[in-house]
Amino acid sequence: MKWAAMKCPMDQNPVSVEAIAATIAGSPIVVVPPVTLLPAGFEEVDVAILNWLAAEAARMRSRSFALMQ
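The structure assignment produced for this chain is given below.
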């Protein structure tokens, strides 16, 4: 059995980074920004503080409930 040498199509048609960038720049890809309920300008640290406050409030509620029983 005789084997034929095969070449990858990429070996025959090298693609440059510039060509890829130009193709992407001209593509109709649209990225929708994520939906958020927070005002513009909030940062990750603000969200972390709000999450901590919510967790503390929940902890205090469950503790108060336990004391009432």
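Interim note for the steering committee: Residues 44-68 form the longest helix (25 residues). Helices lie at 9-12, 17-25, 44-68.
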